[in-house]
Design goal:
- The structure is a single chain.
- The protein is of the alpha/beta class and 288 residues long.
- The chain has one domain: TIM Barrel (Alpha-Beta Barrel), CATH 3.20.20.150.
- Helix content is 44%, strand content 16%.
- Strand 1, helix 2 and strand 2 form a beta-alpha-beta unit.
Length: 288
């Protein structure tokens, strides 16, 4: 797996939330042998025993269930330990969610049908925002407590944490809350910008992509880079950069050499499309 990534032209790889525990010994061997370097891990990595599918929201930091939070803590610590073992710089985290149902799918369907500028859409957004604001306080409190403790554990290993912006409307922190959320966390906790998620939120009418990134620039740690294609079936992310609607050139002034950059593509993307996407983003953002 890592040799294939290296042979595509990548010096570094991210270990994501689909890494089964059975793969870990081989990963350690490959890193030690100098086959490839590891930039980042995405929680939870490795997956808990018995889980064989990508599961970044398997245990939620915001859960009211104490046992679920304990599992989130345990497996997040395992991710931090693994990150230190492979020499990574940062661990990407999901923060949790509030319990509101069906809004994301309804909003996506309306946008696909071209109804974003209708009164019906605006009313649905207002209803959703009212419900999630009413429910967010406890979820945010629990998430912040978890992340503060994880930040302490990460600091002992010299690691950064990255709070990822999310594409689903129920997931925290909400886009407008991100600056305040991060202000309550230690300096080794950064903002992690997922380009595809931000574009989806722009398409839903919640943010303006470049302005949102500019507002988060002081705490920016890095990027998940992928494109978004919208068609009659909806919005599709994790597409190769340059194949969709994201204005990567418009984001370029905010991209710095110190930021970690990870191309995050769908498993179904072909080898040549990976190469084209990699070449595209280097041509727009530069080689650093």
């Amino acid at each position: 797996m890592l040799r294939e990534i290296r042979d595509l032209g990548f010096e570094y790889a991210e270990l994501s939330h689909g890494i089964r525990i059975s793969l870990v010994p081989g990963i350690f061997d490959a890193v030690q042998a100098g086959e490839i370097k590891i930039s980042t891990l995405h929680n939870f990595c490795p997956l808990p025993m018995g889980v064989h599918w990508p599961a970044p929201n398997l245990f939620k930091f915001s859960s009211e269930d104490r046992r679920e939070r304990e599992s989130a803590w345990k497996h997040s610590l395992k991710t931090i330990e693994t990150a230190a073992r492979v020499g990574a710089r940062l661990v990407v985290l999901h923060s949790g969610q509030v319990d509101i149902k069906d809004y994301n799918e309804k909003l996506e369907d309306m946008v696909t049908r071209g109804e974003r500028d209708t009164t019906k859409y605006r009313k649905l957004v207002e209803e959703m925002e009212t419900k999630r604001e009413r429910k967010k306080e406890r979820a945010v409190e629990l998430a912040l407590d978890m992340i503060r403790n994880l930040a302490d554990a990460a600091a002992t290993e010299g690691l950064l944490l990255g709070i990822e912006n999310r594409e689903a409307v129920e997931e925290i922190p909400f886009d407008h809350d991100l600056p305040m959320f991060l202000a309550q966390l230690p300096p080794n906790v950064r903002y992690w910008h997922d380009c595809g998620h931000a574009q989806i939120k722009e398409n839903l009418g919640f943010i303006q992509h470049a302005m949102h990134l500019e507002g988060m620039a002081p705490r920016l740690g890095g990027f998940h880079i992928h494109d978004v294609i919208a068609d009659a079936e909806g919005q599709h992310d994790h597409c190769p950069p340059g194949s969709g609607m994201i204005d990567f050139a418009g984001l370029r002034p905010l991209v710095k050499p110190e930021h970690i950059k990870v191309i995050e593509l769908s498993p179904g993307v072909g080898t040549e499309d990976v190469r084209r996407g990699f070449a595209f983003i280097k041509s727009v953002w530069g080689e650093e």
